[in-house]
Amino acid sequence: MSDWDTVTVLKKRAPKASTMKSEQAVNAARRQGVQVDTQLKCRFFPGGAGSNKQHVATKNTAKLDRETEELKHETISLDLGKLIQQGRQGKGMSQKELATKINEKPQVITDYEAGRGIPNNIIIGKIERALGIKLRGKDRGKPLQPPGDKK
């Protein structure tokens, strides 16, 4: 019965990477005194992205720092705002009434009259038709010609 003294292992495979990462394998390695290096990684963002680091300098930071031009939206001119205001007051309308007539919010009319509005030809066209004056082109402030009455 000496066969029991020798043990033959057939096809012993190395543990898979997934089993080495399991919590049981990590705990067993810790018990044996092996140094274990653990890193928390997000599977959706390889490379550690999404780890909630808020103050990390990106490669574009230096490029943004070198940028000297201040970027702003183009706003309408103050004289256009004055034309809208004069036309509205000439018709005896409030800003809210004009806004309701052109299906926009009253804040849009306020911004346009104060020169803070972002130019939108659709809105300017609605205001032109509601007030009956031209707000665009070379003859600004003149009465708007009804459609079909071109000279």
UniProtKB/TrEMBL annotation:
Keywords: DNA-binding, Transcription, Transcription regulation. GO terms for molecular function: DNA binding. GO terms for biological process: regulation of transcription by RNA polymerase II. Pfam families: HTH_3 (PF01381), MBF1 (PF08523). Residues 84-138 form the HTH cro/C1-type domain. The keyword DNA-binding applies. The keyword Transcription regulation applies. Transmembrane segments: none annotated. Gene3D superfamilies: lambda repressor-like DNA-binding domains. This is HTH cro/C1-type domain-containing protein. It comes from Cryptolaemus montrouzieri.
